[in-house]
Amino acid sequence: MGYLDAFFEAPLTRLVGRYVPVPLPAEGTFAGQNVLIVGATSGLGLAAAVHFATLGANVIITSRVASRADEAKRHIEEATGPSRKGDISCLELDLERYDSCTSFMAKLKSSVPGPAALDVAIVNGGIVNNTWEEGPHGWERTIQINTIGSTLMGLLLLGWMRGARDLRPSPAHLVFLSSRECFDPDLDELTKWSQREGGVLRQVCSKKNWPGHWWDAEPNYAVSKLLLMFTIDEISRLARGPDGDPLVVVNSVCPGMVNTQIGRNIAARSWFHALCTWLVLFITAKTADSGARLLIMTALKPKENHGEYCNFFLTPDQSRRKVAGYFGREKAKALQRVVWKEVIDELKANVPELQAGLDGGL
Ligand SMILES: NC(=O)c1ccc[n+]([C@@H]2O[C@H](COP(=O)([O-])OP(=O)(O)OC[C@H]3O[C@@H](n4cnc5c(N)ncnc54)[C@H](OP(=O)(O)O)[C@@H]3O)[C@@H](O)[C@H]2O)c1
Fold it and tell me: What is the pLDDT of residue 330?
């Protein structure tokens, strides 16, 4: 029931964040830059696209459905008005399908002048699913999209962007949408599952392990974001050059509770869920405009913050302590090694385009 954490963790900071948006950076901060937002037809992605465009960027948005992308493009154009300097373009992408991710990369490469021209990439697309569904590659859909697909996208982008470091004055940025809920899963249970047949990915995706508690509004969402945090950490490691400096600055961000489309399935579950969702959103959720500001600020993190998890309701020190307290434990590190191997084995076996990059250390 992760979304109720809003009442228990840093409620005051969350309440203030609900009413007082983080200020945006100076006008023209992203002038002439190219910004990619994966999943930008609603919620945080769409609001971030409006902010980036207002701040001068050329924005590339993605959607699974061309008509939704066109509608989002119109929305961004209307919201930013005639004074906008940059272009808005749309590409099709479904994180759930490996071939969609690779053909998207091919189209992306031909739509910007070169790898050095991509300044910011935000891997934002994600879902909450409250019924068990199998995705096209045989994994439960929340895990397929939020963990495996997002990792694949991150790796494909990193492979392309990091090769351009020498052509740029400063490293580009790769930002992943995480969630505070990544700290909720029981590591002991996942560790036990990792020793069972098929490994931890197969176990979390199995229908028989689908969290069946009636109160659970977001089965597998927290686990999907935990597994993603493991892979983001590995991607951050791959993003470092031989001298240890990041060739691409990688960060994850949790913008806190934001009123978007992602909760649509939760409220539909029962009157209890509808009431809780309404209460949580009414009391603590900020607008998408406000939440998206955290994405913008994360895309501006200096290289010294490479690899860090950014969270709006904790100070950077509190955030670091929280990450160390959960992910720094030996059992988390051991599980991370297992998860990374399983995800990479899956991707290497099914995405030939990735194989060569990974063999070459990316
Ligand atoms: N809202 C919150 O409180 C909150 C808090 C923490 C983290 N987050 C994270 O923020 C991200 C954005 O969520 P949101 O709250 O803005 O939700 P949203 O309003 O539902 O937007 C989700 C976006 O993801 C895209 N998407 C969904 N499935 C996709 C797929 N298979 N492939 C590619 N794109 C896909 C959708 O685009 P199309 O359907 O057009 O393809 C849409 O633009 C998610 O990763 C979420 O986990 C949200």
Answer: 97
Per domain, the residue ranges of the chain are 27-257+288-352
Pocket probe mutation, ligand 1, options 36, 37, 42, 92, max atoms within 8 Å of Cβ: 42
Residue matched to tokens 């939760």 = 266
Q: What is the mean pLDDT of residues 225-252?
A: 97
> How close is the Cα of 330 to the center of ligand 1, in Å?
32
Atom of ligand 1 nearest to the CA of 3: 3
> Would you say the CB of residue 254 lies under 6 angstroms from ligand 1?
yes
Q: How confident is the model at residue 1 (pLDDT cuts 50, 70, 90)?
A: very low
- Residue 2 above 70 pLDDT? no
Q: Averaged over 310-327, what is the pLDDT?
A: 90
CB 215, CB 289: distance < 8 Å:
no
- Please tell me which residue, 360 or 191, carries the higher pLDDT value: 191
Q: Which DSSP symbol is given to 304?
A: G
What is d(CA 321, CA 288) in angstroms, rounded to the nearest whole number? 27
CA of 300 to the centre of ligand 1 (A): 21
Q: Is the CB of residue 339 less than 8 Å from the CB of residue 347?
A: no
Q: Among 3.30.365.10, 3.40.50.720, 3.40.50.10490, 3.30.43.10, what is the CATH number of 27-257+288-352?
A: 3.40.50.720
- d(C-alpha 90, C-alpha 289), whole Å: 20
